[in-house]
Write a structure and sequence with these properties.
Layout (H helix, E strand, L loop, with lengths): L1 H17 L22 E6 L5 E12 L5 E8 L26 H13 L5 E5 L5 H19 L6 E4 L6 H10 L2 E3 L7 H7 L5 H18 L12 E8 L6 H14 L4 E6 L16 H16 L21 H9 L5 E2 L5 H4 L7 H13 L5 H6 L4 H4 L3 E3 L2 E2 L8
Helix pairs in contact: 2-3, 3-4, 4-6, 7-8
The chain binds iron/sulfur cluster.
The site of iron/sulfur cluster (SF4) has 9 residues, from loops.
């Protein structure tokens, strides 16, 4: 058992530190926490004497869509890999420590950690050995043992491997709360610059299409816990010199046509001893702007064409995309708070999904006449005021200059 814990320590550390916090797993809005709270923590695995050994296992604080807070273990079944993706610390031939589990051994270890309260849910991925189908079978066998042999009912996010078969995707959907396929790049040409042996359409996009098709054509009660899992993907932002327009075009397609819950953007960070080690890292502000723009597409009724792309297809980094849109479109045509429809309120910077609902609820009781009333509803009046009318009048707002 000590050897198994040591291997898990290697894998959870590699996933948390070497590969990067958001590289191949889920954090973010569906799992909302501040960046500080989002930092992985280590849990000490107790040694045989009942004390605490030195074998730390990384777990991540996570908030599930239902609001439940859990300790999430993000790990690989194996960090050995036969592929050679240019950006990845686990690429074949790179000198790094490798560790591997067999499904039953890993499932039993995880359940033991769950029983000790060290981890409550898991994101499980793997390096590829013997092809995508064989690797997917190992992930599925692990999930099957967890669910059906060891009665683990907690949160499980399963990775779909490149090249997995349709039946495997369906089996994953019977076992997991969430499934993911990492597209990494927005299209075939860009993927070739990151992962020369992955096929964008056949190996990566197709499984996401199957997930959507199964959700649409089969009753939800067949899924784990009576409903189908959500699906997510991740892009390595800046890794393939792609533009924001390319990334958000792919994101928009996934939201509109494949029912994706969320696209994650992970800023490219060069890894030593990989072909991209000399490529500059992507500034975190770009990742932030991509998230803001993707939420406008997903939740705020924006079309791709409305986003403020510059001539080179990049979003401006100096202002958030909703603010930039409002300056052009709302500065001379402000929104009347007491009459605007929900979709119009959502266009105003500083008014989010909850804020729009709060305004609609509140004005049924009484007209909203000043900014303090909006502030009390959670509206960021400093951002919203320049684009609002309150009962026909421009909101009197003095911006703080110094
Ligand atoms: S398939 Fe590519 S991204 Fe995945 S572990 Fe192997 S080298 Fe890394």
């Amino acid at each position: 058992m000590d050897d198994a814990v040591a291997r898990l320590q290697v894998l959870s550390t590699q996933m948390s530190l070497e590969r990067g916090e958001e590289h191949c797993f889920v954090t973010g809005k569906d799992y909302t926490f501040s960046s500080k709270a989002n930092a992985p923590t280590t849990e000490l695995y107790p040694d045989k004497t009942g004390g605490c050994g030195s074998q730390d296992i990384f777990v991540h604080p996570a908030v599930l869509p239902n609001g439940q807070r859990i300790k999430l273990l993000k790990t690989l079944l194996s960090s050995a890999c036969e592929r050679d993706c240019y950006y990845c610390p686990f690429r074949a031939g790179r000198d790094t420590r490798r560790a591997t589990f067999q499904p039953e051994e890993f499932a039993r270890l995880f359940v033991m950690l769950a029983q000790k309260g060290i981890a409550e849910g898991m994101f499980l991925s793997s390096g590829m050995i013997g092809g995508g189908i064989r690797t997917q079978d190992k992930l599925l066998d692990t999930a099957d043992i967890l669910r059906n042999k060891l009665s683990f009912h907690g949160y499980l996010h399963l990775k779909i491997m490149p090249g997995a078969e349709r039946a495997q995707v369906e089996r994953a959907m019977h076992l997991a709360d969430r499934v993911s396929v990492n597209l990494e790049a927005p299209n075939t040409a860009r993927l070739a610059k990151l992962a020369p042996h992955k096929e964008f359409i056949e190996e990566l996009l197709q499984p996401l299409k199957w997930v959507d098709e199964i959700r649409r054509t089969q009753p939800g009660h067949r899924g784990w816990n009576g409903h189908w899992p959500s699906s997510v993907t991740q892009f390595v932002a800046g890794g393939a010199c792609e533009s924001d327009l390319e990334l958000l075009t792919a994101t928009d397609y996934l939201y509109r046509h494949l029912g994706l819950r969320r696209a994650y953007f992970s800023s490219f960070n060069p890894i030593p001893n990989t072909p991209l080690e000399n490529q500059p890292p992507t500034p975190p502000i770009r990742e932030h702007r991509l998230y803001q723009a993707s939420f406008l597409l997903r939740d705020y009724g924006f079309n791709l064409e409305e986003l403020p792309f510059e001539a080179d297809g990049q979003l401006p980094v100096q202002s958030d995309p909703k603010q930039a849109w409002a300056h052009v479109n709302l500065a001379e045509r402000p929104v009347e708070v007491n009459r605007a429809e929900r979709h119009e309120l959502l266009r105003v910077p500083g008014i989010g999904l909850k804020g729009a609902e709060a305004i609609l609820r509140s004005r049924r009781q009484a007209k909203l006449r000043d900014l303090s009333a909006l502030r009390a509803l959670g509206i960021l009046v400093g951002r919203a005021a320049p684009f609002l009318l309150l009962d026909g009048k421009r909101a009197a707002y003095q911006p703080i200059l110094f």
